[in-house]
Amino acid sequence: MFALVFFAIIFVAILYFLKFNKSSRELEHIPYVSALPVIWALFRNKPHDEIQDIVRKSSKGHDIYLSKLGPYVSLNIASPEYAKDLLMKSEDIAPKFEYRPGNVLYDFFGNGMVFSNGDKWRTYRNLANPAFNLALSPEMVGETTMDLFSFIQQNLNRPIDIFEVMQRTTIEVLGKLAFGYKFGCLESEETPHIINIYKFIISTVESVYRIVFPWISNLPTEHNKKFHRAIKEFDEFIFDIIETKRNKIKNNSEKYTNNGRVDLLTSMLELSEREGIHTDTKQLRDEMVIFFVAGHDTTSMSLSTSFYYLAKYPEMQEKARAEVISILGNEPVIPTSDQLKEMKYINAIIKESLRMFPPASGLSFRTLEEQIKIGSHVIPKKTLCTVNIWQLLHDPENWENPSQYNPERFLNNKKRHPFSWIPFSSGPRNCIGQNFSLMEQRVILSMMLLKYNWTLPKNSINKDKLMLEAQFLLRPVDLKLIFTERN
Ligand code: HEM
Q1: How many domains does the chain have?
Q2: Is 185 known as a binding-site position?
């Protein structure tokens, strides 16, 4: 029996190897780089910046190369010009790789916008675009920042986990933005039950083991059963919100739950009714899940990076505060859109934080539907491609002293390749929430600067450098800050 299993494994491994070699023959002009050192570092939970150092060293300076992470052989791009060649292709020539049921990404995200293609993607992106434009005014984020003040008042003068606090804040913002819902994360220290459910789901989706060995998710383990039960509970929560909204729109009764503001879901439902576009409840659920996931941990990471560096460099914090006071005065008030535009230094801080620690360090896979050219390389149809955003944002050719945090680099009008700063990706599949997130970060940072000073605790593990978890969606490790009230 043992021998049979052993030979079956060898046979499958040979088939797998031959399959890989077939695709690599068509791509033999592209160097192949082993991903084993990266996988090994991921399993040892190495900080993400160290993993990226390993990526850079093992790719030996190639800015286009093949490698194999888990079951996927992919073409990796790490130069702005090559990234442009891929990302500016139409969404039909370089569509997203579609995951199948049984893969944790599909099981949770379904066909949400990050992973959908063709008419489905176009329909929902077109429905969501105007909704995002309507959401750009700063009041809702400003009101949530007032709730953040109340939360921090309970925790003054002692170390608090800034990433956790930013998650609470951005979850509140996302709940109101996406479906006009108040989770109550800033009302008490207790985490709402549905958010605990969500955190369990997302920790499973992000697991390195499941990326490298996706079949783990199909085993009848207790964890997998709990994962599917958690998705069911999260789904019931979202389905309930969708049905309630549909009914309110049908009956024309108090649809605008969020201080009279239109949330994304209501806006998408109304537009679809006006235009006679059928919206499927399961697809709307997938879109809400994507907005929720794509929208809050990313912004929390970026804000945490800014708070961290402003604590590490007090003179930077003072300079940022002086700019905000010169525009808003000395009292914490909600800025207007025009006032936000004047905040050049705050904007440079946010851009530098996104460069230093891009919350999404790499892009999801594209599968080519046609042969394309990347630089002078001919890349055949069906090749799986991705862009390493981190490497673009730390490329010494475009960024002097890339590992140094320096917002001034965004104030000196230096000409750079337009694809050298793409933390939100670019082209037709760029981030739909980019402008919203930038506005959100400007509002929260500027109001917090008026209300508080903050420092790193003396014994912080992040004193010398910001420690990162291993994941591809970046997170800081144990990032505590001490807030004190100004005046
Ligand atoms: C700092 C904050 C954010 C960063 C760094 C970020 C980054 C990105 C990146 C890199 C992509 C491309 C993903 C890929 O091609 O694999 C993306 C797509 C997307 N993002 Fe964001 N994002 C942020 C905030 C948001 C927010 C606030 C929302 C919504 C509320 C959002 C919703 C989306 C959606 C729906 C897509 C898919 C767009 C499409 O394929 O048409 N993101 N984001």
Answers
A1: 1
A2: no
The three-point CA angle 250-255-259 to 5° equals 175
Task: Write phi, then psi, for 402 (nearest 5 degrees).
Answer: -60, -25
Q: Could you tell me if residue 110 is left (phi over 0), alpha (psi between -120 and 50 degrees) or otherwise beta?
A: left
What ipTM was assigned to the predicted interfaces of this complex?
A: 0.99
pTM for the model stands at 0.92
Query: Cα separations (Å) of 219 from 102, 103, 300, 443?
Result: 10, 12, 33, 45
- Residues 6 or more apart whose CB falls under 8 angstroms from that of 213 comprise 70
Look up the domain containing 214 and give its range: 2-485
- Asked whether 420 and 395 are in contact (CB, 8 A), the reply is yes
Determine the distance separating the centroid of ligand 1 and the alpha carbon of 428, expressed in angstroms.
12
Q: Mind listing the pLDDT tens digit for each residue in 337-381?
A: 999 999 999 999 999 999 999 999 999 999 999 999 999 999 999
> Is the CB of residue 446 below 6 angstroms from any atom belonging to ligand 1?
no
> In this structure, are residues 48 and 389 in contact, taking their beta carbons and an 8 Å threshold?
no
From 113, 298, 393, 431, the mutation candidate for ligand 1 (largest count of ligand atoms within 8 A of CB) is 431
CATH code of the domain containing 91? 1.10.630.10
